[in-house]
User: What shape does this take?
Amino acid sequence: MKPPLRIGLAGLGTVGIGTYKILTEHADLLSERCGRPLNVTAVSARDKAKDRGVDLRDVRWAESVHALARDPEVDVIAEMIGGADGDAFDLVRDALDNDKHVVTANKALIATHGIDLARRAEAKGLTLAFEAAVAGGIPIIKSLREGLGANKVSRIVGILNGTSNYILTTMEATRRSFEDVLAEAQQLGYAEADPTFDIDGTDAAHKLSILASIAFGSEVAFDKVRCEGIQKISPVDFQYAAEFGYRIKLLAIAEEGIGGILQSVHPTFVPAETPMADVDGVYNAVVVEGDAVGRTVYEGRGAGEGPTASAVVADVIDVARGLYQPVFQTPVGKLRPFQQANFDERRGKFYIRLAVMDRPGVIAQISRLLADENVSLESIIQKGTDANGAVSVVLMTHETSEKSIARALSGIEALDDVMQPSCMIRVMEF
Ligand SMILES: NC(=O)c1ccc[n+]([C@@H]2O[C@H](COP(=O)([O-])OP(=O)(O)OC[C@H]3O[C@@H](n4cnc5c(N)ncnc54)[C@H](OP(=O)(O)O)[C@@H]3O)[C@@H](O)[C@H]2O)c1
Assistant: This one.
């Protein structure tokens, strides 16, 4: 048998402890599968005295991540601290510089510094792996990098944030407000105390930019993701979505567009009869379309102790077996600079909900402004009058461009009888 793989765990929170548990509870199984033991030799976190519900007495405590990065008795470091910068970044950079393989669950780090870190890893023939960083327990990185490696990918569509999916699913089922459901999600531990990155789309954008780099062979471009969150969705939007035959999901989409790649995260009407529409609660899902394979669909738990640790350990197993992959599938020196497609030219159907004063001629004015931009309507619904004399006007357009919708909406919102803000949701047909 080969000598043991010596593992250093940085971060002993949800993911770190989950990883420790799998490595110790499945020690015999993993040793058999890898042909060598997988031993945790050192750990690091902030508070040594904290009770973490596991027995760490036989494991050396590294006083800092800097000590861990230089530890001569560690072959691979699993970084499970979090954050794009600070100690997580220092640890990963220093570990690679000290000839250690790195496995991480940190999407913010890879979305921000992935190319720099990949360069360091590949220059030394070291592993930098991050299966746990995208879609938790779903092996989507491995699928893209290995199982689908023969394909030219044309589109990736994902539900990549469990918190926002839980909120949308609960709002739809209960017709309660966004604020109310978010507060409940925080109480249940599905949303963090600061949920900003989950609800404004940033977390999904981090993950999308990583998937896009692997799929399209271009450098990670998190700053080129067009991002809209779920804060503007009202309970009534779910009712209208159902009337039109859709459900609302926060989709992360990377696809070939005019002149490059389009990366976007936004709430989306998804046809109710498609698999993506059935992904509920904290689950994640990813659809990948490749030229040879066609459409493939992946679904599973996108976060939590077990699923995320399962992905971390999968990467550790690859290191133990000596399997080496270029970090983003294409060797880092061959990744193309990211070419952004023109979002204005993107085409699709749009749902628009307006609050307007119930006065004669308003609908005619709205119709004229849409017609001026060549936007034709598939459907128009006018509902009830509220205490202020406002009615909801709901429009479903035929296929048109982002540019036309943006221009028409800016004209419509400037009308005296239209109250701000309107709610526009893109429609995706699969
Ligand atoms: N939770 C999930 O479901 C999930 C899913 C996918 C990916 N991830 C990613 O996994 C990573 C970890 O998430 P988590 O949920 O496990 O976080 P967490 O529960 O907050 O744990 C973070 C751990 O990092 C330690 N830590 C913080 N700063 C440190 C420092 N400067 N030096 C050493 N240790 C430090 C903390 O130490 P103390 O315990 O002593 O405070 C804690 O043990 C993040 O990148 C996250 O985005 C998490």
Observations:
- The pocket of NAP is lined by residues 10-16, 44-47, 50, 65, 80-82, 87, 105-107, 132, 136, 303-304, 308 (CB under 6 Å).
- The domain at 141-301 is CATH 3.30.360.10 (Dihydrodipicolinate Reductase; domain 2).
